[in-house]
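BUG: 3D viewer hangs when loading the predicted structure for this chain

Environment: internal workstation, default settings.
Expected: structure renders.
Actual: progress bar stalls at 90%.

Input used:
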Amino acid sequence: MTELRNVEADVSRFRLRVFAVGFLVLLAFLLIVSRLIYLQVIRHTDLAEQAESNRTAVVPIVPNRGLILDRNGVVLASNYSAYTLEIMRSKVTNLDDTIDELSKILDISARDRRKFRRLMDDSKSFESIPIRTRLTDEEVARFAAQRFRFPGVDIKARLFRNYPLGETGSHAIGYIGRINQREKERIEDSDDAANYRGTDYIGKLGVESSYETTLHGHTGVERLETSAGGHAVRRLASFAATPGDTVMLSIDIKLQRLIEEMFGDRRGALVAMDPRNGEILAMVSKPTFDPNLFVEGIDQENWAALNESINKPLLNRALRGTYPPGSTYKPFMALAALQLNKRSPTQVYSDPGYFNYGGRTFRSHEGGLGGVDMYRAIQHSSNTYFYSLAVDMGVDAIHDFMKPLGFGQITGVDLNGEVRGTLPSTEWKRNAYKRPEAKRWYSGETVSLGIGQGYNNFTMLQLASAEATLANGGTRYTPHIVKASKDAVTGKIVEIVQPAGVPLGYDAKNVEVIHKALGLVNKVGTGARLFANAPYTSAGKTGTAQAVSMGQNVKYNARLLEEHKRDHSLFSAFAPLEEPRIAVAVIVENAGFGAAAAGPIVRRIFDYWLMGQYPSEGDLAAVSKGQATTITGTPRKVSDISIESNEPPVP
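Structure tokens produced before the viewer hung:
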């Protein structure tokens, strides 16, 4: 018997299925429409930018770095362009094989490979790293013919820094080097991150570092249309980079080179300043180094030679080397005595050649100087006079008087890395030491402070700044090495505004006493032979400072000591005495008596600055060996001396 179908039930099920399918189709269309709305309306801006970025590329244009000039317009740092062979690791399958193959086409030395490996450590995989620099036109053509074999390897034109005078003034000028990982992170966290896109080098030392923002300039951009393979098709837009401004220093590079030549192979530091405004005329640290070694990334051999040398050529001794000032401290002690009413200029004290205090004997001139007043004490550098004065004043009074002069303080010079040194006080000692007995200040420790020994440790910049303040009558100016900048676009020269001088409130009569005493030093005292027949008046003070403590009962004999344990030679001076235009502080390490090594340098600096005279070749050679306390040979005119520069090392 045939079963009858329930037509109504079948129709109902069919309708249900049609409704379900229709609902699913409608839902699918709704999803498609909502996705279209999301992509074309809500995400339109973002996706349009992504599409545009797939079609275009924004390439940074690195600005030309600003020049550095001396006060007379001599170029101290410039730029040149050269081709480099560069590798992007992310696009290279086998790096070692690629380099080996490249070496068959171009000369790639073991040194180039080592430098490349070192740069890899400070770079990301997608960054282009140079393996050869300063390619010749022939080498560029040779690689171009084989370029298809080396994906990820390309030729680029880059700007390189050049220091045409080599080692001259290197600590003050500084150098640039490749940006390391720590510097990258600091730049990325700064507000100037966008301005360093595409920049691989940054100032590392000296003016190059301190005036990085001024010298760097502003990065430009170039918008290119690219193919699917990432190759540039055409330029869509370009916004030129703005070159860095030129920085003009207060340094006279001829004077700087003269001083460095007079140091010869000896170690030491010197700062010359204009006491009328704080301009630094010369800042010397010996030994020096060639900043060109760092431009492309210094190789391991040169780095080891510089970094491991016992002479520490990378140390800026003028800014970071601290030394006891020795007897150059005595004029400031005398000024303190006058200002604090501890001594009068004509009070006479006995100098038997020693000073007894607390059961100890402190040495002075052998045989003694007899009766000395303040003039004679400075003129002949009586230790006994200043031992006694230090005890009468006390350590804290000395500290409080010397602090405004800048001793043991940051001077504020416009260079990075300045150190403070040590100006002792009871509070300083409590904070400097951990053991209770070491925290205490003992009265016997005050004695040697009077002659610039003991805990006293200052930089030559601090001593020169104090000397300049004394020279101008007591107004302290902030030392500075940059005079002005020149706008790269307009050519306008803008003077760097410096803080106003700070009067320290010295009595003019007291300053006059110290000036007169220091004038006697160079006229009839310990500096008399140095300044014999000088056509100008000057004021100065010789100094000899212990490099290591010898003990009170040990007689000093330089010939029995290793060279680095011998006394330092110091000299501080200013000229002309009546209207000072230059103040100098110099130390020649382990060179002995101040008038023998440091003093001759100062005399010739004054002859240069005040008379326009340059030493004869024989005189210059004698000074560099510590063998000339008087002028020998006929001086040359400064105008006849030329500064020879090295041409950029372009192939």
